[in-house]
Design brief:
Layout lengths: L4 E9 L2 E6 L2 E6 L11 E5 L2 E6 L1 H14 L2
Antiparallel strand pairs: 1-2, 1-4, 2-3, 4-5
Length: 70
């Protein structure tokens, strides 16, 4: 099973994004996504932003994560 984490993009430069995933800031590859902007949400897997997601998607993902980690 693969697990992705939702994260908010803080900044993007030269194919690398700084993201905030529940308070933990990380550097991830942004090479797979075009036109990534600060403030957007992404799904992160294996050190790469793999998809843009909506705020609603992020909320649902966070709820599921909390349920599974209980």
């Amino acid at each position: 099973m693969c697990v992705g984490l939702s994260a908010k993009v803080i900044s993007v430069k030269d194919g690398v994004a700084i993201v905030d995933a529940s308070g933990a800031k990380r550097e991830v590859s942004a090479e797979l996504l075009e036109d990534l902007e600060p403030g957007e949400y992404v799904m992160v897997h294996a050190g790469a932003a793999i998809a843009k997601i909506t705020d609603d998607d992020k909320s649902e993902t966070d709820k599921l994560k909390e349920e599974y980690l209980k």
